[in-house]
Design a protein that fits this description.
The protein is elongated, with a radius of gyration of 22 Å. It contains 6 helices and 9 strands. The protein has a 4-stranded antiparallel sheet, with no helix packed on it. Strands 1-4-5 form a 3-stranded mixed sheet, covered by helices on one side. By secondary structure, the protein is α+β, with helices and mostly antiparallel strands. A hairpin with a 2-residue loop joins strand 8 and strand 9. The longest helix is centred in the middle third of the chain and has 37 residues.
């Protein structure tokens, strides 16, 4: 995606942790409709002049480099032909307004950011030409959706392991609670869903690593794994009973963290659209 000078200038510093980066896609009125964005970057001599705002930008406060999705040609048709990515470093004209309060995932901040007549050098354009940003970001979202699927697997596994341990330690009516059919059935469903989600995620990751198109597979992995994690987290609360609602146990945190995977990197409703379109386009269910 990026030019060699961009790779040489940023990647070594990012690898050492000297430079932290984030990407800015979502806008307050746009949500998952990225082509409806209003943030613009207008060429002015050797600079771009950037105006607009973004929201739900993870790691924004601690990052000095922003991969900004914006319109360099608002009049382009189709709309995605006018979208580019700029690698913007913080400076005059950039404002970080606030951290957004969240249900879960409190270990990293999510912020609102704004650009007002901010100037950035023309060399910050990702790649060699304008108008390729939408394709670049969609390619990046394949990786992002695989990453979200992996995070969902982590939440699901933690919830299951805690539940398995608790079900063997906790007794009622003189026996460990896992021996009660209702609890045993929960555990059986949880491990089945988690195992299926893991295999689907590995399948999608192998296709991506092989250089094959994997937007449908990444979408399926993200969709299935996130929904599975949400259900597993809920069942973990049920297995723990009243303790599942207590902050003394971790399962309440899993239940708060799991919903992010359902809406992150494109909502699951969007994933279903992606999957259906690709299925029709491919015309086959063959792997």
């Amino acid at each position: 995606m990026g030019r060699q000078d961009q790779k040489d200038g940023y990647l070594p510093r990012m690898a050492t942790g000297e430079l932290r980066a984030t990407m800015a896609l979502t806008e307050p009125g746009g949500g998952s409709d990225l082509q409806a964005m209003r943030t613009t970057a207008t060429r002015d001599g050797d600079d771009y002049v950037i105006n607009g705002s973004k929201t739900w930008i993870s790691n924004a406060r601690r990052s000095d480099l922003i991969a900004l999705l914006c319109k360099t040609d608002p009049a382009a048709r189709p709309k995605h032909k006018g979208v580019s990515i700029l690698l913007v470093e913080k400076g005059p004209g950039f404002t970080l307004s606030r951290d957004l309060p969240k249900l879960g995932y409190k270990g990293v901040e999510s912020c609102e950011i704004a650009f007002e007549q901010m100037r950035a050098p023309a060399s910050c354009l990702l790649g060699a030409s304008e108008g390729t940003g939408f394709a670049q970001m969609m390619r990046g979202l394949e990786v992002g959706r695989l990453q979200v699927a992996g995070r969902a697997l982590g939440v699901g596994r933690a919830a299951l392991e805690d539940s398995l341990r608790y079900a063997q330690e906790r007794e009622s009516f003189g026996v460990p609670i896992w021996k009660h059919q209702s609890i045993g059935n929960y555990l059986a469903e949880m491990v089945t869903k988690l195992t299926a989600a893991r295999q689907l995620t590995l399948y999608a990751a192998r296709k991506f690593d092989a250089g094959q198109r994997a937007d449908m597979e990444a979408g399926m992995a993200k969709l299935f794994a996130s929904e599975a994690a949400m259900q597993i987290a809920l069942d973990a609360v049920r297995i723990h009973g009243g303790y599942g609602y207590s902050t003394e146990f971790d399962v309440e945190r899993y239940f708060r963290d799991a919903p992010l995977m359902i809406v992150g990197e494109g909502t699951n409703e969007i994933q279903r659209n992606v999957i259906a379109r690709q299925l029709i386009k491919r015309g086959s269910v063959a792997p």
